[in-house]
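lol ok so funny story. i was supposed to be doing the assay writeup but got distracted and ended up predicting the structure for this chain instead. priorities right. anyway since i did it might as well share w the group, maybe its usefull for someone
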Amino acid sequence: MKIISVILVLICLSLAARATVIFDRPADGSGALLPSSWVSPNGSDADVYTYDTFTVTNDAWLTEIDWEGGGGTSLDFWISIFDATHPVGNPQVASSAWLNYFSTGGNANQTSLGTVGATPMYGFKYILPTPVRITAGTYTMLIEDNSGSWGGIASGGSGTHVNFYTGLAMFLPGPGKTTFTLISTDTNYTVAVTSAPAGAGTVSGTGTFPVGLPITLTATPNSGYAFVKWTENGAQVSRNTNYSFTLATNRNFVAVFTNAATIAVMVSPANGGTVTGAGAFVGAKTVSLAATPAPGYNFVNWTENGAVISTTTNLSFTSSTNRNLVVNFTAAPEAAFFDFDSDTPNYAVNTYLMYYNLPLASRGLTANFFPSVVLWQIVTNIPGVTPGVPSNFSGKFLSPGYNSGSTMAIGFSDLVTNISLDFVTDDLSANVNFPTAVRLTAYTDSAKTNTVGWVTNAGPQVYNASYPEGHLAFQSGTPFSYVVIDIPPGQQLSQATAFWLDNVIVRRAAGPPLTVAVTASPSAGGTVTGGGSFYTNATVSLTATASDGYTFSNWTENGGVVSTVTNYSFTVTAARTLVANYTLIPLVLNPASVAPGSLGFTWTASATGWVLQESPDLSPGSWTNSVQTVITSGSQNSVAIAPEPGNKFFRLYHP
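and the output, tada:
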């Protein structure tokens, strides 16, 4: 076991002209060292991180960090600032926003300060490559050696700090405060922008900033305009909407816009896919739009004012006027969606999974979510994190138990070839500069005897936000029915221990589609919808609608009744041929008052398809269509028959 003591002191060794001290906690002169060093990961108690709080009273731009250390020499440090305070025993950086991360990159400007007792002391200075805005408030600081040879942080007097011991995997409080100094420059310049013509667009990135700060201006044209260029003192400096430079003096720009045709595209449904090529175009320019369906969706067409204008993914035309187009996608018949909102059953928030599976059904496919050891639950936010709902999530999602390792397996009721999902990782310390990767491994069966393949990915590095947000996508020509999502070991010094899941989308393995054929009997009796081609285990929903004068009787298959309700749903496992049967509603002739000596009767006018017939003797072959005049008045048909010699019989007949 290697025992290392470290003194971390952030003190201002030499302040350049026009500099301001944002925060300063000087050493107390005792020579005490507070251990804070990462040693070779041997599990010993000497592997220690030291966290301590500090308060900034005014908003400022941080440009320099100075500190002292003892017990060893090092030039490579990682420095983290968390937007959190620490209660006794736990700085809670796992559930707080990681604010900033800095790496000295092998140059911490080490200077010998002699010895305190028998301990060599060194001063360190890190000039930030770019200033960082820090607002008034209380924060937690972590300075971490990356070489394994440095010692610790100098004591800054009374109070407490918190250590995380890797060998014990726990936080413990300790006496004393760490010492350090945060410095800001006093040299600030102004970036101003005007739009020409006024009201043609908007600009972001202006304000007052410290010297040396990278500035990015962004011009956004309003509808009917296009961005042309940036000018300064009448000279063009850029034609890109985003213009970047390093601030060295006051700057005054003009964002120039011009009239243009705006080509706007709406995606329907919003999560069905993406489109490129839209925007503002000056003059007669070629517009090239390209539609790309999202996983689980297929492209349908382009529409304008409800009319289809193209059925190909790429659409080109010449700009001449404003146009509002819609690109339409539809869910692929073989796709299933598990987002914990639209699938069934609709589990309530705080539903727990532990040692048993959570079954969800979507479009005829069942996914069984199997947690491994730890407690999982359905939630709508991540407690203690701002924002609590990741931008790549929506509604409800799966959350692991607090401070627990994460592994989730998913078994599918049918073979699949594609899977994608969104995740968020719980990166805890300064090493969030390298966000933790999540791994998905696919197997042919739940016994995991045959591995089909795997994929890993990590979310992007996050500044001034919550946790890294990532996406995993895997496809294979070999179908699979079981996947395991976990965090592979050995990634970094302090990799995440947990992840959250949402938006699992899969595609079934392509197979011969099953046909569900439907007909109406008689054909005039009504209509039927819902038939077509389906993948195995898909849900089929048939609907029977009776015509006027008919009533629905039942659904039959091979002559046998399978349902007596108009809406018939089932899971298709084989081709089927079904008949919607309808029954004609009998129509009654009602006697009516007519002139004395005449015969009159009425019937409902809305009953279509009926014909008035007459017969002299009721024999089967004697019925003919009547030549009597039928008068329709309001909701009634009526006829008046003058006396004739012999017998005459009347009836309503529906061919």
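Residues 19-185 form a domain with the Jelly Rolls fold (CATH 2.60.120). The mean pLDDT is 82.
back to the writeup now i swear
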